[in-house]
Amino acid sequence: MLHSFPYVIQGDCTYKTSCYGLALLQIVGFNCKGKNFTVAYAFLQNEIENNYTWALNHLSNLFQENKLSIVIYIDRDYAFMLVVKKAFPESKHHLCQEASRS
Fold it and tell me: How buried is 46 (Cβ within 10 angstroms: 0-12 exposed, 13-18 middle, 19+ buried)?
């Protein structure tokens, strides 16, 4: 699926939800009908640059040689944002933010 729809991906971590206290990083993609599909999961010991670098380097290896200009949505995790800029320098980055409530 990633090779068919490599244009938009999203990454997010859940905090210490496993019985081992590890963060779960989930990377998802989106197809042309707006449905999402799982690209990768990774358990991270903690949310620091080295762990994100490891995960995103493996993710970038999944893309074909001719990397397209993709859009990556992430939350406001500064370590993750720095690593995305390094691992996918040709991509556009967008922050997911909670919509303000009226």
Answer: exposed
